[in-house]
Amino acid sequence: MIQLAKRRRIRKLESKGAVRRTSKRSSKTKKIAKTVDSVLGPGKLAPNFSLNSTPDQKVSLNDFRGQPVILAFYPADWSPVCTDQLSLYAMVMPEFKKFNAELLAISVDNIWSHLAFVKDRKLNFPVLADFEPKGGVSRKYGAYKERIGESARALFVIDDKGVIRWSHLSPDGINPGADGILSALENLNKAQATEKS
Amino acid sequence: MSGTTTVARKRTTGKTLLETTSKETAGEYEAPRLAVPVTPERDHIEGPVKAALTLVEYGDYQCPYCGAAYPEVKKVQKELGSELRFVFRNFPLTNIHEYAMNAAETAEAASAQGKFWPMHDFLYEHQPTLGNTSVALGYARTLGLDGQKFEREIAQHLYQKRIKDDFMGGVRSGVNGTPTFYVNGIRHDEDAVARALIEGLKQT
Fold first, then answer.
1. Which residues in chain B have their CB less than 8 angstroms from residue A86's CB?
2. Annotation marks residue A82 as catalytic
């Protein structure tokens, strides 16, 4: 509630021209970044990885070179169904596919938990186990919470050449939804169309 | 206030997801905004069309949390009276709720005959019966609707495009599960209980 009151105060000040929105944004970005040391940002080459999607199948990021890839790190399988981030993504999948994008979800849960979770939630994309060494890939992306031992809720959109074009770290407990991913994919399309012309 | 706070994600009862977060992060976070403005020509609006306060819900008729939030919304409406307009938009999670689309189509078919809100309320008050379509049909007849037209429109999926449009509009607004509420156009990340919703509406 404090945050609502604060937001209202800021808005009042803004309407008087006392505060510029841009300055508020930049301070916000810094503060969110503090909770996890450094989630990899746009322009960086996405570190390759190879993780199990089933007990005898591995998925590598480099397998998807030539198409956009969405990486969704999340803390744990089995969050409540109606607010489950991955269930939502399964429903939005046709929209992601319009951009020829592949979605890979990653958490530190083991492969047997993932298999049951995928079946239960009817997930239609690979769910990868960052299990051994625990959180190894999440760490490379700056998306690991050491104290809790879980991946952070972090999203990355990677272009066809393996470069990160957008990343987002959600505050704990907040499911980010899918709008940020869709906007990033749209921007990627626009940027690539400009490069070609 | 101490340096940490507990965020409970919109559970009214049986809270299952509790995470501790740093105060600093919560304080600086800015919630997403409604991407599709409320339009009286298209939206289902309860309360004065030009009311000062606006509560928008993206909901799924089969979702138990939406069922739990339903009486909370009623409390908000009772308390705020004509200050508030309440807008309901469809967000059926069809991959996990097998009757959600049919229920949304049922409410839209009732809407076509001018009875959206009675049917909306009936569906939430009779969630366990959603698998049995004759229950809603019986209620449609009680409301005086043309039962044949009602049944035909549902069978022909006449309103499915509208429902899917609602869904995608919700996705673009940052809907992240059901129910998702917007208080005066800002996503309500607090609990879906009357007290928190009223506070959000009055403070934004």
1. none
2. yes
